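Appendix B. Chain record.
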Amino acid sequence: MLTKKVKKKIILISLVFLFLSSAVYFLYFSLNKNLLYFKTPTDIFNSEDINVNKIFRVGGMVKKNSIIVNQEEVRFIITDFKNEISVSYKGVVPNLFSEEKGVIAEGSLKDKKFFIAKKILAKHDENYMPPELKNLIKE
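C-alpha coordinates predicted for this chain:
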Protein backbone atom coordinates (compact mmCIF):
# COMPACT_ATOMS: atom_id res chain seq x y z
CA MET A 1 0.00 0.00 0.00
CA LEU A 2 1.25 3.48 -0.87
CA THR A 3 1.89 6.01 1.83
CA LYS A 4 0.48 9.52 1.81
CA LYS A 5 3.87 11.04 0.79
CA VAL A 6 4.26 8.67 -2.16
CA LYS A 7 0.70 9.41 -3.34
CA LYS A 8 1.41 13.19 -3.21
CA LYS A 9 4.64 12.74 -5.20
CA ILE A 10 2.88 10.64 -7.83
CA ILE A 11 0.12 13.23 -8.17
CA LEU A 12 2.66 16.07 -8.37
CA ILE A 13 4.73 14.28 -11.02
CA SER A 14 1.56 13.48 -12.99
CA LEU A 15 0.44 17.12 -12.91
CA VAL A 16 3.86 18.38 -13.99
CA PHE A 17 3.91 15.83 -16.84
CA LEU A 18 0.37 16.83 -17.89
CA PHE A 19 1.28 20.53 -17.81
CA LEU A 20 4.47 20.04 -19.85
CA SER A 21 2.70 17.81 -22.37
CA SER A 22 -0.07 20.34 -22.93
CA ALA A 23 2.47 23.19 -23.21
CA VAL A 24 4.44 21.30 -25.88
CA TYR A 25 1.21 20.43 -27.71
CA PHE A 26 0.00 24.05 -27.87
CA LEU A 27 3.45 25.36 -28.77
CA TYR A 28 3.83 22.86 -31.62
CA PHE A 29 0.43 23.58 -33.17
CA SER A 30 0.67 27.34 -32.81
CA LEU A 31 4.10 27.35 -34.48
CA ASN A 32 2.95 24.94 -37.16
CA LYS A 33 0.16 27.31 -38.23
CA ASN A 34 2.58 30.23 -38.53
CA LEU A 35 5.33 28.49 -40.48
CA LEU A 36 5.89 29.59 -44.05
CA TYR A 37 7.66 27.02 -46.13
CA PHE A 38 10.45 27.88 -48.54
CA LYS A 39 10.13 26.38 -52.02
CA THR A 40 12.23 26.68 -55.13
CA PRO A 41 10.70 27.03 -58.61
CA THR A 42 11.57 23.37 -59.25
CA ASP A 43 9.71 22.32 -56.09
CA ILE A 44 6.64 24.19 -57.34
CA PHE A 45 6.95 22.81 -60.87
CA ASN A 46 7.26 19.20 -59.62
CA SER A 47 4.52 19.48 -57.02
CA GLU A 48 1.23 17.78 -57.89
CA ASP A 49 -0.99 19.38 -55.26
CA ILE A 50 -0.30 23.12 -55.14
CA ASN A 51 -2.76 25.11 -53.08
CA VAL A 52 -3.19 28.41 -54.90
CA ASN A 53 -4.55 30.27 -51.87
CA LYS A 54 -1.86 29.13 -49.43
CA ILE A 55 0.82 31.66 -48.49
CA PHE A 56 4.40 30.42 -48.71
CA ARG A 57 7.85 31.58 -49.79
CA VAL A 58 9.62 31.12 -53.10
CA GLY A 59 13.35 31.54 -53.16
CA GLY A 60 16.07 31.60 -55.73
CA MET A 61 18.13 33.97 -57.79
CA VAL A 62 16.77 36.95 -59.69
CA LYS A 63 17.29 36.17 -63.37
CA LYS A 64 19.54 38.56 -65.29
CA ASN A 65 17.68 41.19 -67.35
CA SER A 66 14.32 40.13 -65.91
CA ILE A 67 13.48 43.07 -63.64
CA ILE A 68 10.74 45.29 -65.06
CA VAL A 69 9.76 48.26 -62.92
CA ASN A 70 6.72 50.38 -63.67
CA GLN A 71 4.69 52.78 -61.56
CA GLU A 72 2.43 50.16 -60.03
CA GLU A 73 4.55 47.03 -59.67
CA VAL A 74 7.87 45.29 -60.01
CA ARG A 75 8.03 42.15 -62.14
CA PHE A 76 10.94 39.78 -62.18
CA ILE A 77 11.82 36.11 -62.60
CA ILE A 78 13.12 33.85 -59.83
CA THR A 79 15.22 30.96 -61.05
CA ASP A 80 16.96 28.00 -59.44
CA PHE A 81 18.85 27.33 -62.70
CA LYS A 82 16.50 24.47 -63.59
CA ASN A 83 13.08 26.15 -63.58
CA GLU A 84 11.84 29.68 -63.18
CA ILE A 85 8.75 31.49 -61.97
CA SER A 86 7.51 34.99 -62.77
CA VAL A 87 6.85 37.22 -59.77
CA SER A 88 4.73 40.34 -59.46
CA TYR A 89 5.19 42.63 -56.46
CA LYS A 90 3.50 45.90 -55.57
CA GLY A 91 5.62 47.92 -53.21
CA VAL A 92 9.15 49.08 -52.53
CA VAL A 93 11.85 46.45 -52.91
CA PRO A 94 14.78 46.22 -50.45
CA ASN A 95 18.07 47.94 -51.29
CA LEU A 96 19.85 44.62 -51.76
CA PHE A 97 17.35 43.47 -54.39
CA SER A 98 19.07 43.23 -57.77
CA GLU A 99 19.72 40.92 -60.69
CA GLU A 100 21.70 37.73 -60.10
CA LYS A 101 21.25 38.03 -56.33
CA GLY A 102 19.37 35.79 -53.93
CA VAL A 103 15.79 36.70 -53.11
CA ILE A 104 12.87 35.25 -51.20
CA ALA A 105 9.34 36.30 -52.12
CA GLU A 106 6.43 35.68 -49.76
CA GLY A 107 2.94 35.41 -51.21
CA SER A 108 0.73 33.02 -53.14
CA LEU A 109 0.57 31.40 -56.56
CA LYS A 110 -1.72 32.39 -59.36
CA ASP A 111 -0.59 29.27 -61.21
CA LYS A 112 2.60 27.18 -61.40
CA LYS A 113 4.42 29.83 -63.43
CA PHE A 114 3.17 33.06 -61.81
CA PHE A 115 3.62 34.17 -58.19
CA ILE A 116 2.04 37.22 -56.55
CA ALA A 117 4.32 38.47 -53.79
CA LYS A 118 3.21 40.35 -50.69
CA LYS A 119 6.78 40.73 -49.35
CA ILE A 120 10.26 40.64 -50.82
CA LEU A 121 12.94 39.50 -48.40
CA ALA A 122 16.53 40.41 -49.12
CA LYS A 123 17.88 41.14 -45.64
CA HIS A 124 21.23 39.53 -46.23
CA ASP A 125 24.57 40.57 -47.54
CA GLU A 126 25.38 40.22 -51.22
CA ASN A 127 27.27 36.95 -50.64
CA TYR A 128 24.30 35.08 -49.16
CA MET A 129 22.79 32.23 -51.10
CA PRO A 130 20.22 29.72 -49.82
CA PRO A 131 21.79 26.29 -49.20
CA GLU A 132 19.49 24.64 -51.74
CA LEU A 133 20.81 26.92 -54.47
CA LYS A 134 24.43 26.42 -53.46
CA ASN A 135 23.97 22.69 -53.97
CA LEU A 136 22.33 23.22 -57.37
CA ILE A 137 25.13 25.49 -58.56
CA LYS A 138 27.78 22.98 -57.45
CA GLU A 139 26.07 20.30 -59.58
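Further analysis of this model is presented in Appendix C.
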